[in-house]
Amino acid sequence: MASSAASAAVKTSSVVSKYFLGKCMPSLKENSAKIRIPRLVLDEYLHMYFREFEFVYAHDPKKLCKTGDTVLVKALPQKLTRLITHEVIEIVYPLGDIVDPITGKKVVAGKYREDLETARRLYGATESGFDYEKAPPRGSMEGKRDFTHRPHEVKFYEGQLDTV
Question: What is the pTM of this model?
Answer without folding.
Answer: 0.66
